[in-house]
Amino acid sequence: MRAQRGRAALAVLLAAGALGSGVALTATSAWLISAAALQPPVLTLMVAIVAVRAFGLGKGVLRYAERLVSHDAALRVGSTLRVRVWSELVRIGPAVTGRLRRGDLLTRLVSDTDAPQDLVVRVLLPALSAILVGAAAVVGIGLLLPAAGLVLALGLAVAGLGAPAVAAWAARRTGRRTAALRAEVACRTVELLDAAADLLVHGAADRYRHALDATDARLGAVRRRAASATGLGTGLTVLALGGTSVACTALGLAAHAQSLLAGPAVAVLALTPLALAEVVAALPDAAVRLPAFLAATARLQELERTEPGVIDPVESPAAGVPTALEARSLDVRWPGAGADAVHDLDLRLDAGRRIALTGPSGCGKSTAVAALLRTLAPSGGELLADGADVRTLDSDRIRAGIAWCGPFSHLFDSTLRANLALADPGEHADDDRLVDALRRARLGEWFAGLPAGLDTPVGRHGGAVSGGERQRLGIARALLADRPILVLDEPTAHLDDPTAEALAREILEVTADRTR
């Protein structure tokens, strides 16, 4: 937000100008109408007439300009923060984020990053502009009648400080609860949608849906309490300014009876406090939003404090893409685990050499792959890339030499061409090269039957293709990457035996000069 302080300051000045124009419009109109009733010479009213027009036009123009500037600043803050949150997720790495619920990550990336935008537009802006306009109004009324200025200052203090304080006190317990429940609703919604087929087949859909309904009902109850707090503050604001208007009117009438104040000025004293209702109207809502902002900020700071799966060195030596990896007595442990998932592993990957890690499910094969891909750090032993300890090298540089296909290849909701080109985004990823990769992955016949060819959409998360086709598309993407080291985690999963054997032979042939 510091980068947007110039825009924020300009937005505050514009907002104060718009609100001040509204108050001045009411005060000037009150004086003009009451003075005109006395039928003075028209020339004595010309300044007020021009002022009414100027304030009327200025209010709309300044409000429009303020909306442009303030929302521009808020959107820039949100955009910058989303990039920062995404960078934090990348820093933490998939080994850590994979253990967080997807709905929780979605809430932090979307809802929690919206909170600072609310801070700019709905908290800081109304609060600072209200202070400027309120102070100017107190000074202006005080010049007319000092006693009325003191009463107005007291009324604004109750409406601008007391009412928001009451609203904030009532909503204080709901802020953190709202953020937690919102994240829970997002988590349950994502899980319900992703697991819809399994839930329907096993007859558990209604149970999960009722659980989501119950969570959403709790969230609604918390939000209703927050809305009640805002309403309580707004009611106190109206009561305070209404009482201020009555008191200022009484003081004005008393001063007029003593010939201390002209008649039109009494109308100004009576109506100006009512015009200030617009100035302080947004403050109770701002006070209610502040706890939610603090809760969202705490959640983002918690993400920032999360230890990553791999910590890169501050400075790493200049090195090319690695062509060989070697593990010496390698131990690997998942974050937060009490024991190593891989212990005392020795292997060496050289050009043209094939290594197969076999064993029962849960023995640590995928953990070893995660260490090779530098998404998990060794807890003991050594992992060398071209003879250099990986702890001294940049992880992105190491991964630049590795093509990988896991047991579940993610496909984006886009075309076949876009999903394949992900592995080779350069200009040389032409259609012929993409089609050749499909043929090498034993997808030639399947591709030939697609009317739209490479422009065929694969659907949400690849829903338009089978599990075996998804797996082979992942392999085609890995082959297309054409990197020195090829790492495959269960590459023939979801395939029938003849296809799996043919694909394995194809992989061995096309990667004869590479590490695998």
Automatic annotation (TrEMBL):
It comes from the Bacteria. The keyword Metal-binding does not apply. PANTHER family: ATP-BINDING CASSETTE SUB-FAMILY B, ATP-BINDING CASSETTE SUB-FAMILY B MEMBER 6. Residues 9-271 form the ABC transmembrane type-1 domain. It is found in: Cell membrane. Residues 327-515 form the ABC transporter domain. It comes from Pseudonocardia ailaonensis. The chain crosses the membrane at residues 42-62, 123-145, 151-171, 232-255. The keyword ATP-binding applies. This is Thiol reductant ABC exporter subunit CydC. SMART domains: AAA (SM00382). Keywords: ATP-binding, Membrane, Nucleotide-binding, Transmembrane, Transmembrane helix. InterPro entries: AAA+_ATPase, ABC1_TM_dom, ABC1_TM_sf, ABC_CydC/D, ABC_transporter-like_ATP-bd, ABC_transporter-like_CS, P-loop_NTPase, Type_1_exporter.
